[in-house]
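User: I'm putting together notes for a lab meeting next week and I want to include a structural view of one of the chains we've been expressing. I don't have a solved structure, so I'd like a prediction I can at least talk through. The sequence is below, exactly as it appears in our construct file.
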Amino acid sequence: MDPEKKFATGAISATVWKNTGKTKAGEETSYRTVTLQRSYKDKSDQWQHTSSFRTSDLPKATLVLNKAYEYLLLGGEEEEEAVL
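Assistant: Thanks for the context. Below is the predicted structure for the 84-residue chain, given as structure tokens.
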């Protein structure tokens, strides 16, 4: 599954995903979810991702989550990945 939109600043990113499913009545529906993560390099110099944040990460996490929320409220009109 490819992300619909990604907002990132430094190592912190919020990704918007478009999902599909069925309602209780069996009708097709779509909905969006957002994942928040921090990227880092491990001891082997390989990129890893976590949902654990340091205190200094919280302002950036707030920023990317606000951008994701704004994007969702405006109907997902932007096309490119946003790097903040």
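A couple of points you could mention at the meeting. The chain has one domain: 5-78. The chain has a mean pLDDT of 90.

User: Perfect, that's what I needed.
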